[in-house]
## 1
Amino acid sequence: MALILLINGPNLNNLGNRAPELYGSTTLPDVESAVAERASELGHEVRAYQSNHEGAIVDFIQEHGPAADGVIINAGALTQVGYSILDALLDAGVKVMEVHISNIHAREEFRRRSVFAPYAVGQIAGLGWRGYLYALEGLSHEFAAESGS
């Protein structure tokens, strides 16, 4: 059983209310529940966390990262500037899948850059909240390949 941290950054607590034309009507608790349910089916455990504060995300990774096998992260607006989060992820030595609900590559120029992408197993953008499930599936395949199954 793998432990996967599901981390969401600033404003993602407002999913379902915030710009539904971009982010849909699904709430963050709905996303967390769907990911946890699918993870259980795959034999994994998910520990979800959301914060609007970069340091709190770093604290969470430092506390839970050593026991984790992977991270699914939607850093939101910290995607372009979250070097302290990146450092915490690198220190934890976990596989990372980056998720964005909207297609960041089809939006404003500043949103197209990610400090996480060069270190992530993959980046899923523009597939809505289901991108979290695809990230989970991707990590699960990574774990299986690593173990030789």
## 2
Amino acid sequence: MSVHDLDAPMRTPLKHARGLGSAQDGVRHWWMQRVTAVALALLLPWFAWLALSMLGAGQDDWRAVLANPRYALPLLMLVLAMFWHAKLGMQVVIEDYVHTRWLEIALHLLNTFACIAGALAGVFGIARCMFAP
């Protein structure tokens, strides 16, 4: 009988969990959700005011407004905060409710790519209005 055989009954499930602990990203994720939520709480009423004040305006009027950095920069911040917040929120939903590993990975990838594509489309559209001749 070896020394290792004597330890066998003393092993706990902790042995199997070692190395599978926290990814140390939870606090950062939690803070970023709160930061983006505050940004959205400030920027969405501003955008609602802008949209209501532009009722009936045409495309040229919107381009003229977005050529002004006073309006374009907060709109850029809104788009980026909105898609970042959406990505973080969907990530939590996927982690909590999807229990098939391959499907979870596929949904995380889809979520990331969709949010990046949406944010880039928004930034590109605003930049195009800002720098249009």
